[in-house]
Amino acid sequence: MPPLQGTPGSVYLSWRDPVAAALNQNNRAHMSEQSSDAKDLSRRRFLQNTAAGLAAASAVGFGVGKAQAAETSSGVNGRIPELAPQWKKLDLAEILSRPAAFVSISQNNSLYEPWGAQGSEKHRERTSLPATIKVVKAAREAKNFRSFSWIGYEVFRESYPQSVFDKVQYETWVEGLNFSPEKKRADNELVDELKALVQPGDLQFNELALQSSFIGTQLPLELSRKRIEVVVLTGIHLDWCVEGNARAARDNGYLPFVIGDACDCQKPEDEPAALRRINNFFAPVISSDTFVSLLLKGTDSRKA
Question: Looking at the 3D structure of the chain, how many domains does it have?
Answer without folding.
Answer: 1
